[in-house]
C-alpha cells in the first residue's frame, strides 16, 4: 500500500546546506538529495505505508532528524 500524501516540503536555514536522506526504520537510505536552497520538495508518492526518518546532514557535520509516519 502506498501513502495518500504525495509531496513533503522541507524548509531549513540555507546556511545548513548538505544532504537530505529518507531512511526506513532499519536505517536503509531509500532516498537522498543534495540541498540546493533553503527549501526542498520531496515526491513521496511511492513510499509504502510505514515509519521513516528524514535526516538533514549538513556539510559541517551537523545532523537534524525527524521521524515521519506514512499512512
Describe this protein's structure.
The protein is mainly beta and 71 residues long. It has no helices and six strands. The protein has a four-stranded antiparallel β-sheet with strand order 3-2-5-6, with no helix packed on it. A two-stranded antiparallel sheet has the order 1-4. Strand 5 (50-58) and strand 6 (63-70) form a beta hairpin. The mean pLDDT is 78.
| Major beta sheet summary | 4 strands, antiparallel
Strand content range? over 45%
| Integer average pLDDT | 78
Order of helices and strands: EEEEEE
Number of H/I helices: 0
Distance between the termini: 9 Å
- Helix content class: under 10%
How would you write the strand order of the largest sheet? 3-2-5-6
The computed structural class is: mainly beta
Number of strands: 6
**Low-confidence parts:** none
Radius of gyration based on Cα positions? 12 Å
Oligomeric state of shown chains: single chain
Per the principal axes of the C-alpha atoms, what is the gross shape?
Answer: globular
Amino acid at each position: 500500500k502506498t501513502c495518500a500524501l504525495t509531496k513533503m516540503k522541507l524548509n531549513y536555514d540555507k546556511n545548513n546546506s548538505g544532504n537530505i536522506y529518507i531512511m526506513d526504520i532499519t536505517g536503509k537510505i531509500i532516498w537522498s538529495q543534495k540541498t540546493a536552497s533553503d527549501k526542498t520538495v520531496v515526491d513521496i508518492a511511492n513510499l509504502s505505508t510505514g515509519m521513516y526518518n528524514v535526516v538533514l546532514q549538513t556539510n559541517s557535520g551537523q545532523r537534524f532528524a525527524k521521524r515521519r509516519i506514512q499512512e
